[in-house]
Design goal:
Rossmann fold
């Protein structure tokens, strides 16, 4: 599982919560490095914040969907934005969760995404 969020505190919380629930987590706080981190780590799924500086989550999703190697990689997008779901789904995300979210719901969503 690769997790990217520009907020260090949220990134750390996600990393701990996912590891406690049995996920192997690679975290990245710089959205411009996510594609390279995916190439290196070859995760089973990606969890992205939608609104990040320099490269937004929807830009990352579009790049993944355009890439033959990663076009089917499960992507879950999280955001506190009211229009976030529309933006994320139009970009090609598999699932969207609005912040704040319940960790159990996040885990369930990720497990579903990884088994589709």
């Amino acid at each position: 599982m690769l997790v990217c969020d520009d907020d260090k505190d949220i990134l750390e919380m996600l990393e701990v919560a996912l590891e406690v629930n049995g996920f192997d987590v690679v975290s990245e706080g710089d959205s411009t490095l996510v594609i390279g981190a995916i190439e290196k780590a070859k995760p089973d799924a990606v969890l992205l914040d939608l609104w990040m500086p320099l490269m937004s989550g929807d830009e990352i999703v579009r790049k993944l969907r355009a890439d033959g190697k990663n076009k089917n990689l499960p992507v879950v997008v999280i955001s506190a934005s009211q229009d976030g779901k529309d933006v994320a789904m139009k970009a090609g995300a598999d699932y969207y969760l609005e912040k704040p979210f319940d960790v159990d719901k996040l885990v369930s969503c990720l497990q579903t995404a990884m088994t589709r």
